[in-house]
TrEMBL record:
Keywords: Ligase, Transferase. It comes from the Bacteria. Residues 28-463 form the Amidase domain. Signal peptide: none annotated. The lineage of its organism: Bacteria, Bacillati, Actinomycetota, Actinomycetes, Pseudonocardiales. This is Aspartyl-tRNA(Asn)/glutamyl-tRNA(Gln) amidotransferase subunit A. GO terms for molecular function: asparaginyl-tRNA synthase (glutamine-hydrolyzing) activity; glutaminyl-tRNA synthase (glutamine-hydrolyzing) activity; transferase activity. PANTHER family: GLUTAMYL-TRNA(GLN) AMIDOTRANSFERASE SUBUNIT A, MITOCHONDRIAL, TRANSAMIDASE.
C-alpha cells in the first residue's frame, strides 16, 4: 500500500490491520505527515487546514500504540477502540497546555488548562491528536478564513471553500491529512463542510456528545465527528458520546457502538423516507436538486418507500427563527469575547450586528415560540416517515475568500443572507433530531454535493442505517490529488 493509499485509509480498516499486525500506527502517521507536507501548502493559496501540527508528540504516541498492539496480539487481549488512529481536532476543542484562540485577535496567546471532553475521550480511546484544524472567527461563518489563520481552501477546487465552520477538519479529511476529525455544529458547521468536501458529518441529538459550559447549555449547538465513511463516523461518535460530569446537558451511555446493518441496502426494504428538496421555501441550485433526486431514486429502487414531504417553512421564517436565538445567546457571546467589533473580520461583524437587531425585535419568549413552531411543523411533516432526506447545501460551492456581505444568488434569485445557501439550520432548531450528511454526487465545478438524512428525535440507529445505505448506493469519485486538475468551475 502506497503512502497515498494510507493517507485515505479509513479508520475501521486501519484498526483491523493494526490488530492483525499488518500495519503499524507509525506507518499510518508517517503517511499522513508526508501528505501534510506535500499538499497542505501556505495560508493564502494552499489547502491550509491546520492551525498547528503536533507531529513529534504524535510519533511518540504512535510508537507506544504499535508496541501495545504487539503485546495485545501475544496475549489475545482487546485494545482501545481508537488505539493508534490519528485524529485532527478543531481548534475550538481545547487541548491542555495548547493555545485556544478561536481565531479571535482578543484571544491571541490564550492557553487551555484542560482538554475538551471530546478530546479527552479521543485520547482515552487511544486516538492520537496529530494536528489542530482551522475555523472562521468564533466559528461564526460557513466559509473558513480569518486574519489569524488565513484562507482554508477546498482540496477538490482551491477556488472554493471547504465550508465552515469546521472547514479545516473537512479539508484535512478530503486531502488525506487525517484519518478522523472533530467538528462542531450550531447552524450546520459540521454538515456544510462535510457536503462540500465529500466527507461525512454527524450532528448528534442535543446533549448526546458533551460540550463545554457555558455554551454547552445552548440548545442549538453540539460537538461531533467527521470522517470519510459512515462507519468511521459512527465509531468516533460512540467514543465521544455519553454523560460527562463537565456538561450537565449530556446524556446516554458512553462507548456504546452505533449499530450498522450488515447489509444496509437490504435493510432499506420497507423503510419510509420522506423527500423534501426545498424544505418549504429554500431556493436550490438545479445541480443540487438533481443530485438529491438521484439519491431518492436509488433508495426507492433498493426497496425504500420514498414519499414527498411538504413543509410550510420559508427561508425568511428560518432566518428570523435562528437569528432570534442567536440574538439571545451566540451574538452576545461573540461581543463579550471579541474585545470590540472593530477587531473582528467583516463576516463576524455582520453576524453580531444581525444578531443584535434580531434581539431588538424578538425577545427570549418570542424566540422560544419561533423554535417550537418549527419543531411542531417538522414533527407533523415527518409523522408518516422513518427519516427525511433533503440537500445539505442549496448551492454547489462558496468562494474560499469571500465575506458575502451583500447576500448571494441562488438558482437565479438573490438572497439577502448567504446562510440561506444551506438547509442545515432548521435541524439545529429541531436539535433533538440526529442528522447525518453523506455524499450524493459531484457538481460540474468539481465540488462534492451532499444530502442530509434526518431521523426522529434521539433515533440514531435509523439515521446511521439510512446514511450507510446512501453511501453504498451512490458511486464515489477518487479522492482529489492536489497538483492534478481539480475543479475549473467558479464558486458561487
Amino acid at each position: 500500500m502506497t503512502d497515498a493509499d494510507l493517507a485515505h485509509l479509513d479508520a475501521v480498516s486501519a484498526l483491523r490491520a493494526f490488530r492483525a499486525l499488518e500495519l503499524s500506527p507509525v506507518e499510518l502517521l508517517e503517511a499522513l505527515t508526508a501528505q501534510v507536507e506535500r499538499v497542505n501548502g501556505d495560508r493564502e493559496t494552499g489547502v491550509n487546514a491546520f492551525t498547528e501540527t503536533l507531529f513529534d508528540e504524535a510519533r511518540a504516541e504512535a510508537e507506544r500504540a504499535a508496541d501495545a498492539y504487539v503485546r495485545a496480539a501475544r496475549a489475545g487481549e482487546p485494545t482501545p477502540p481508537l488505539l493508534g488512529i490519528p485524529v485532527a481536532t478543531k481548534e475550538k476543542h481545547p487541548l491542555a497546555g495548547r493555545r485556544i484562540e478561536q481565531g479571535l485577535a482578543a484571544h491571541a496567546g490564550r492557553v487551555a488548562d484542560a482538554d475538551h471532553p471530546v478530546v479527552e475521550r479521543v485520547r482515552q480511546a487511544g486516538g492520537i491528536v496529530h494536528a489542530r484544524t482551522t475555523s472562521p472567527e468564533f466559528s461564526c461563518a460557513t466559509v473558513t478564513h480569518s486574519p489569524m489563520w488565513g484562507i482554508t481552501r477546498n482540496p477538490w477546487n482551491l477556488a472554493a471553500t471547504p465550508g465552515g465552520s469546521s472547514g479545516g477538519s473537512a479539508a484535512a479529511l478530503a486531502a488525506g491529512m487525517t484519518t478522523l476529525a472533530t467538528a462542531s455544529d450550531i447552524a450546520g458547521s459540521t454538515r456544510v463542510p462535510a457536503a462540500f468536501t465529500g466527507t461525512v458529518g454527524y450532528k448528534a441529538p442535543y446533549g448526546r456528545i458533551p460540550g463545554l459550559p457555558p455554551l454547552s447549555a445552548d440548545w442549538y449547538r453540539g460537538d461531533g465527528p467527521m470522517a470519510r465513511t459512515v462507519a468511521d463516523t459512527a465509531l468516533l461518535a460512540s467514543v465521544m458520546a455519553g454523560r460527562h460530569p463537565v456538561d450537565h446537558t449530556s446524556w446516554g451511555p458512553h462507548g456504546e457502538p452505533v449499530p450498522l446493518p450488515e447489509d444496509p441496502v437490504a435493510a432499506l426494504r420497507g423503510v419510509r423516507i420522506g423527500l423534501s428538496v426545498r424544505l418549504g421555501g429554500f431556493a436550490v441550485d438545479p445541480e443540487v436538486e438533481s443530485s438529491t433526486l438521484d439519491v431518492a431514486k436509488r433508495l426507492e429502487d433498493a426497496g425504500a418507500v420514498v414519499v414527498p414531504v411538504e413543509l410550510p417553512w420559508t427561508s425568511g421564517q428560518v432566518m428570523r427563527t435562528i437569528f432570534a436565538h442567536f440574538g439571545q445567546v451566540l451574538g452576545p457571546a461573540v461581543e463579550r469575547e471579541s474585545g470590540g467589533l472593530h477587531r473582528l473580520a467583516p463576516y463576524t461583524r455582520r453576524f453580531v450586528e444581525d444578531a443584535r437587531r434580531a434581539a431588538e425585535r424578538d425577545g427570549l419568549l418570542d424566540s422560544l415560540a419561533l423554535d417550537t413552531a418549527m419543531q411542531r411543523e417538522l414533527a407533523i411533516a415527518m409523522s408518516g416517515v422513518d427519516a427525511l432526506l433533503c440537500p445539505t447545501n442549496a448551492v454547489t460551492s462558496l468562494a474560499a475568500d469571500s465575506d458575502y456581505l451583500d447576500g448571494i444568488e441562488i438558482a437565479g434569485s438573490h438572497r439577502d443572507h448567504y446562510w440561506e445557501a444551506h438547509l442545515t439550520s432548521p435541524f439545529n432548531v429541531a436539535n433533538r433530531c440526529p442528522v447525518l450528511s453523506v455524499p450524493s454526487g459531484t457538481a460540474s465545478n468539481g465540488v462534492p454535493i451532499g444530502v442530509q438524512v434526518v431521523a426522529h428525535p434521539h433515533d440514531e440507529r435509523t439515521v446511521f442505517a439510512v446514511g450507510a445505505a446512501v453511501e453504498a448506493l451512490v458511486p464515489r469519485k477518487p479522492w482529489p490529488t492536489l497538483g492534478a486538475e481539480q475543479g475549473t468551475g467558479s464558486p458561487t
